[in-house]
Amino acid sequence: MQAEIITIGDEILIGQIIDTNSAFISKELNKIGISVYQITSIQDDKKHILKALAEAEENADIIILTGGLGPTKDDITKHTLANYFNDELVMNENILKHIKNIFARMNFPFTDSDVQQAMLPKKSTVLENKIGTAAGMWFDKNGKVFISLPGVPAEMKGLMQDKVSPKLQNSYHLPYIVHKTVQTYGMNESNVAKRIENWEKELPDFIKLAFLPSYAKLRLRLSAKGDNKEFLEQSIDIEIEKLQQIIGDIIVGLQENEVIEVIINKKMTLNNLTLSTAESCTGGNIAKLITSIPGASNFFKGSIVAYSAKIKEDLLGISIKTIQKYSVVSEQVVKEMALNCKKLFKTDYAIATTGNAGPTTDKTDKTVGVVFIAIATPDDVIIKEFNFGQPREKVILRSSSSALEMLKKEIDKNNKNSL
Amino acid sequence: MQAEIITIGDEILIGQIIDTNSAFISKELNKIGISVYQITSIQDDKKHILKALAEAEENADIIILTGGLGPTKDDITKHTLANYFNDELVMNENILKHIKNIFARMNFPFTDSDVQQAMLPKKSTVLENKIGTAAGMWFDKNGKVFISLPGVPAEMKGLMQDKVSPKLQNSYHLPYIVHKTVQTYGMNESNVAKRIENWEKELPDFIKLAFLPSYAKLRLRLSAKGDNKEFLEQSIDIEIEKLQQIIGDIIVGLQENEVIEVIINKKMTLNNLTLSTAESCTGGNIAKLITSIPGASNFFKGSIVAYSAKIKEDLLGISIKTIQKYSVVSEQVVKEMALNCKKLFKTDYAIATTGNAGPTTDKTDKTVGVVFIAIATPDDVIIKEFNFGQPREKVILRSSSSALEMLKKEIDKNNKNSL
Predict the structure, then answer these.
(1) Domains detected in chain B
(2) Cβ–Cβ contacts within 10 Å for residue B15, how many?
(3) What is the ipTM score, two decimals?
(4) Cβ separation of A302 and B306 shorter than 8 Å?
(5) Number of C-beta neighbours around residue A16 at 10 A
């Protein structure tokens, strides 16, 4: 079963927004055994939408559209779909009532164009949007399915999870798709490839390998598709087992697509630990990553973002002498930051970062991109120096993920409860 | 001049990564007068890449590809391009030297597959990638241009800005594309549309209007394309002037695509002001947004992320009585947080947030989604209560942008130097 995703909106094509909807939909479809053949982003233009629909109908069995369902003139998806299916719009009283309720709750006056949102194609199955006024639509045509969803991410997500995925699972006999990702750290793509060359050659045909380099690490993704989920999982696990023998020294994680902040959340909670951060060059990004995951308040106590030497002195108690002697970007300063942070927040672990994210060197004597990271553990402190180069964005991202990877290693070392 | 962007990589189609490259390339192309007709994301599959190339050649004048240029087996873009252009790969000595240098600097052993990265299509103009080993390639074919770039964002960005954009500007006589965006706040799409209905009807044909609703606000984007940049800008400015008369009460910003953290950065620096934050429900996200912009250290002193009541008491000096009497999510607590934060960091302004991001209510008595935000100014403190509903991600994003919008209003009120 192949799907195509069509995202509609000029704002995507001028780069005003990043299309995050496609990744979410792709992930949801993969979970229920549907592969995505192509993602196509197009303009709010009737001819272009019709062309994309026709092409997608050639290539895919399931076509999911997002965007263009709002109440204003530039929202033309609904009319274009009615046109494509030789359909007409009719009033849907249930949806009208739902829209009126939303307006009453928000205390917004109800306009004519809001009534238009309840006019929906006669041939479609309407998918009620719990949190917004733009309903989803489901069309069947010659064994193929077309689904139109709003472009606002929260509304699209709700409809995908509550309505679209279950209805697709009921409509088809779907295979399983299993992906597992091995995260490696500290070695580049070509060298990892060379080390696992023989293993790769002997992979069974139904298991596909992909190399995913990114700022902070190289991930190896193994994918398999078939009817027997257990068999697929076991087969992949056997291959990962073999990988462990070959490159166990650089493997840092095995979780399937799980981001490091989720892993930290689970490990901290499981072992009943607490955490705080003292951030300079990461500017609060580590705290932000940790608190983006529900349940963070169970173990995360807080952070001090110390963006000047004076604040490092006043709030983190770093002695001005240490800063003057060793520079604000130094092993000595990051060590004191971590230890004092742990003490201030009364936590089991503390992360500290100091460095120069650039693009200018500010008032430090250190090269742009140089970062010191410290992890204070219940009875030790581990310090590492990095050079992440440029640009600024990369320095912040790599510092944050390196810090979380270092923390993970320390937790694993000190605690028996593992995932 | 129309462009199509083709991003290659299974990781996009299974939703493992979000494609941010397309938005960056689209924005760069728009700046130099090139419209993007379509963005197509496809699998690492030879047949699929060839099909996408042929289709793009039909629709567009400039085709930009990203991804699949690495040293491993799943990287097939280069070979597929050579195939498409009936070309062969030849060793490029300059690139080989460049790759060897990178490996020497990183202290990585040099493998056979790394040598392969210097084998490039004979007919292509090679674009040297300063920070990586995968070179870009530029092909000319019957007046159309095909450009292949690496998928790693920092490498793609460097090549786009240093090589591709200048070379495109030299190759074509390009028109100007002007976009300006008006940000509104506090009124929904259909009601804004109704208020500006007559204005919209009378817009000149060459100006296009788009409504862009998002979590935190509704943006109105005006776009125009033509040979006379000044005329386009003036025409749009005249229309924005008229808009000011009609909906001035809900307009919060006029900057062209400029994000609020950049605006804050400029206003703070221009007026020689300082800032700190005390964050509870935003978990460091406001500090992270502020410090993502270069030059933040000129005005931003730091943040205290206080993720428990105890830390609010210990580090921010909020009296436990206030917390017990009014709850940790209250006007009284957020007010003290802002005032004490300003004092601790000795700044002119301070932002404070407290609320419940969900999904569970934790230990507070407040509904999930309720957030209090305070802005301490040199001689006042402004407090607002919000209900951002769910999900968690939305609460954090809307709280952060609302806080920065509130801050911006206060700076504008108190300072003469405006942008």
Answers:
(1) 2-171 (3.40.980.10), 176-253 (3.30.70.2860), 260-414 (3.90.950.20)
(2) 23
(3) 0.71
(4) yes
(5) 20
Q: How far is CA A67 from CA A9, A11, A76, A113, in A?
A: 6, 11, 9, 17
Under 8 Å CB pairs connecting chains A and B tally to 331
CA angle, corner A202, sides to A199 and A204, nearest 5?
120
Chain B CB within 8 Å of residue A374 CB: no
Contact of A286 with chain B, judged by CB distance below 8 Å, is answered with yes
Distance between CA atoms of A37 and A49, rounded to whole angstroms? 18
Query: Which member of A30, A209, A287 has the closest CB to residue B283?
Result: A287
Q: Which of B13, B36, B357 faces A36 most closely, judged by CB atoms?
A: B13
Q: In this structure, what token pair is assigned to residue B340? A: 């004490």
**Residue B419 and residue B411: Cα distance in Å, rounded?**
12
| Tokens 């045909």 -> residue | A205
What end-to-end distance do the CA atoms of chain B give, in Å?
33
**Interface contact flag, A304 B315, Cβ < 8 Å:** yes
Interface of A with B in 61-80 (CB under 8 A): 70-75
Contact A117, A134 (CB under 8 A): yes
Q: Are strands B176-184 and A144-149 parallel, antiparallel or unpaired?
A: unpaired
Instruction: Report pLDDT for A54.
Output: 97
Q: Which of B74, B193, B213 sits opposite A211 (nearest CB)?
A: B74
Contact residues, chain B, for A27 at CB < 8 Å: 14-16
How much is the pTM?
Answer: 0.72
Q: Are A316 and A336 in contact (CB under 8 A)?
A: yes
Q: Which amino acid, residue A337?
A: M
Task: Tell me how far apart the alpha carbons of residues B208 and A74 are, in angstroms, rounded to a whole number.
Answer: 10
Q: CB-hemisphere CA count at 13 Å for B372?
A: 21
Beta-carbon separation of B71 and A25 below 8 A: no
Residues of A in contact with B296 (CB under 8 A): 283, 307
Taking only the tens of pLDDT, chain B with its 419 residues reads: 899 999 999 989 999 889 999 999 999 999 899 999 999 999 999 999 999 999 999 999 999 999 999 888 778 999 999 999 999 999 999 999 999 988 887 777 888 888 999 999 999 999 999 888 999 999 999 999 999 999 999 899 999 999 999 999 999 989 988 888 898 877 888 889 999 999 999 999 999 898 887 655 788 999 998 989 899 999 999 999 999 899 988 887 775 556 789 999 999 999 999 999 999 999 999 999 999 998 999 999 999 999 999 999 999 999 999 999 999 999 999 999 999 999 999 999 999 999 988 877 655 667 888 999 999 999 999 999 988 877 788 789 889 988 998 999 899 888 866 55
CA separation for the pair A44, A226 (Å, rounded): 38
Q: Looking at beta carbons, which residues of chain A come within 8 Å of B44? A: 210
| B348 within 8 A of B276, measured Cβ to Cβ | no
Q: Please check whether residue A315 touches B, CB under 8 A.
A: yes
> Chain B neighbours among A 236-255 (CB < 8 Å)?
none
For B179, the closest of A14, A38, A360 (CB atoms) is A14
Tokens 């006024």 found at: A133
CB contact under 8 A, B39 and A74: no
Tokens at B216, concatenated: 């935190």
